[in-house]
Specification:
This protein is an alpha/beta fold and 226 residues long. 27% of the residues lie in helices and 26% in strands. It is built from five helices and eleven strands, in the order βαβαβββαβαβββαββ. The structure holds zinc ion (ZN).
Length: 226
């Protein structure tokens, strides 16, 4: 039964990493909806309306896109990744389709917080399928259309995705302590959609010493600094 589910970024990344996908994926193709625009976005109801348009009017079996992004950074899982999409003629068998609810021909990506959310999703897809930033394409690379809108530039988009990919694989993250927003810089790595950071710099910043000498299976001992 076709449907759509709104998920957190953590759940989206976990899904991307763990979903069973037997077809080979060679590209991630980025779209905008054009209509509805970002200004017309009404959350889940908008995503459902897109699916109903794709199924009832276009006659497709489900939403043509695999993942849709709403302007505030909302993430919706639509057509399952294991199934070929219906988003880019001639390219559907070996691609994943990600679509922003927006009309980036006239709307400004700089005013769209979800732009980076979509780039994180695209980066995670590249990572999952062992692809580099050059595997990111715009719909207009394959069709006489503006999609995903003339205000998005492919080179800049790929650069942003490459930076996120770098951050996810080898770079650092900042752990922010509240209140006061004290920042602890940590090395991080992405494993199955979960960001893992080393305990020691965080513990030390919190005033705890990590005791190496006391060894007990399955336990790490922290002691407040005297
Ligand atoms: Zn498109």
């Amino acid at each position: 039964m076709p449907s759509e589910t709104q998920v957190s970024i953590e759940d989206a990344l976990r899904y991307i990493n763990e979903a069973l996908v037997q077809r080979s994926i060679r590209s991630v193709i980025v779209h905008h909806t054009w209509r509805p625009t970002a200004a017309e976005y009404r959350g889940l109801a908008t995503i459902r309306a897109v699916r109903q348009y794709h199924t009832n009017v276009r006659g497709w079996s489900d939403n043509g896109y695999h993942i849709m992004i709403g302007p505030p950074g909302d993430i919706f899982l639509c057509r399952p990744l294991r199934r070929a999409g219906a988003h880019c003629k001639g390219q559907n068998a070996h691609s994943v389709g990600v679509s922003y609810v927006a009309n980036f021909d006239v709307e400004d990506p700089a005013d769209y917080p979800g732009l980076e959310t979509g780039q994180r999703i695209v980066a995670a897809l590249l990572q999952r399928f062992g692809l580099g930033p050059e595997a990111v394409h715009f719909h207009r690379d394959y069709a006489p259309k503006s999609c995903p809108g003339w205000n998005l530039k492919l080179d800049a988009y790929r650069d942003a995705v490459a930076a996120l990919l770098q951050q996810a694989t080898s770079g650092g993250v900042q752990v922010v302590l509240l209140p006061g927003s004290k920042v602890i810089e940590c090395k991080a790595r992405l494993e199955h959609g979960t960001t893992r950071v080393d305990l020691r710099p965080v513990a030390e910043a919190l005033g705890y010493e990590v005791l190496d000498r006391i060894k007990e299976q399955g336990k790490v001992f922290l002691r407040p600094y005297a």
